[in-house]
Amino acid sequence: xxxxxxxxxxxxxxxxxxxxxxxxxxxxxxxxxxxxxxxxxxxxxxxxxxxxxxxxxxxxxxxxxxxxxxxxxxxxxxxxxxxxxxxxxxxxxxxxxxxxxxxxxxxxxxxxxxxxxxxxxxxxxxxxxxxxxxxxxxxxxxxxxxxxxxxxxxxxxxxxxxxxxxxxxxxxxxxxxxxxxxxxxxx
Length: 187
What we know:
Layout: E1 27-36, H1 41-52, E2 56-65, E3 70-79, H2 81-92, E4 97-102, H3 103-106, E5 109-120, H4 123-135, E6 139-143, E7 147-154, H5 156-170, E8 171-176, E9 180-183
Antiparallel strand pairs: 1-3, 1-4, 2-3, 5-7, 5-8, 5-9, 6-7
Helix pairs in contact: 4-5
C-alpha cells in the first residue's frame, strides 16, 4: 500500500487550505460606464464607490448621446482583481446603468487628460518653464509679468511628469479634467 507523503509545513494537500488563491496586488483599471442621463444617475454610481469604501482616482462625465439621453462616466479606480470584478458586477446592477466596459481588460485604449498649470516665475525660472513647456507641447493660454498658465493634454503620466518638473520652478495651482478614454480599433 502506497502512503501519501505530505511534507511538514506544507498546506498544499491539507483539508484546511480551502481558501482560494486570491491576489492581494492592487491594479489600476479604467471603467467606462454608460448611464441614462437622468437626475441622480451619477450620485448612484458614486454612492456605490463611497458606500463600499472603493476609491476613485479619476472621474469624468458628460452626455454622449443627446437624443438617446445617455452619458458616459469614465472612472479610474484601483483594487485587487477581485474588488475590480465586484465593482463591475455591482455597477451593472444599478438601474440607470446600461453598459459597463473595463477598458483595461478589453484591450488597447487611448487615455487623455487635460491639465491647466499656473506657474509663477521670473528670470531663469521663467525661461526654464517656457523651455519645458515647449518640450511637453504645452500651450501658454495666459501670461502676465509674474506668471503663466499652461495647457497640456496627454496621458496621465505625461501630466504627472510635467507637474513634477514645474514644482521647483514655482507651480502655484493645478486643475485637471480627469481621464477620458476610448478603446482602440473598430469595436
